[in-house]
Write a structure and sequence with these properties.
alpha+beta, Aminopeptidase, 8-stranded mixed β-sheet, globular, acyltransferase activity, transferring groups other than amino-acyl groups, GNAT family N-acetyltransferase
Length: 194
């Protein structure tokens, strides 16, 4: 697997490797929904944003993560990342995903996941995983709607920024499952509007 950061686009949705120019638009997107952050393992909202950004850029520089600014019609609405990249095992995770409220429920997530999954499998991935907090019903439903298979739950997997102990639901899409998942996403995108 040779997974690289590059610009990806589908219709009005574009994913661009995170750069310094995305910092303030992403901060604004993160601050658009301050009530959501207890569902995440970390907070991107102020006053946590600067620490989040520094850590994200350090992981990006080391190659541990490939983060993308997600835009709708040219405006940054959030972020999604490749994580736990393991080229020797031909696997990675897609995670660290957040969209501001007006970017949810339409074209953004299915287009972003079509792009990220397609790029991963085109780059030689054998397996792409998603790891979701068990209490985050909306994210769990979104991953199931993608066509990913739920594998199990990692009990008391981690402590999140609020101190809550998180159970993590693990989903995956395998290389031989990708064509059917791709068709499903393309069919969904044919019926949604921006």
């Amino acid at each position: 697997m040779d997974l690289r950061a590059e610009r990806l686009a589908w219709g009005p949705v574009a994913l661009e490797p995170i750069e310094e120019r995305h910092r303030e638009p992403l901060r604004a997107a993160a601050n658009a929904d301050p009530e959501i952050w207890p569902l995440y393992p970390y907070s991107m909202a102020d006053p946590h944003f600067d620490g989040f950004w520094a850590g994200l850029r350090a992981r990006q520089a080391s190659g541990i993560a490939l983060p993308f600014a997600v835009s709708l019609e040219g405006e940054c609405v959030g972020i999604s990342c490749y994580l736990n990249i393991d080229a020797a095992q031909d696997s990675c995770d897609i995670g660290g995903t957040y969209y501001r409220p007006d970017g949810r429920g339409g074209v953004v997530n299915p287009a972003a996941k079509l792009l990220l999954l397609g790029h991963a499998f085109d780059s030689g991935a054998r397996r792409v995983a998603f790891k979701v907090d068990a209490v985050n019903a909306r994210s769990r439903a979104a991953v199931m709607k993608l066509g990913a298979v739920q594998e199990g739950i990692l009990r008391q997997d981690r402590v999140v920024w609020t101190g809550r102990v998180r159970d993590t639901v693990v989903f995956s899409v395998l290389r031989d499952e990708w064509p059917a998942v791709q068709r499903g996403l393309e069919q969904r995108l044919a019926t949604v509007s921006p």
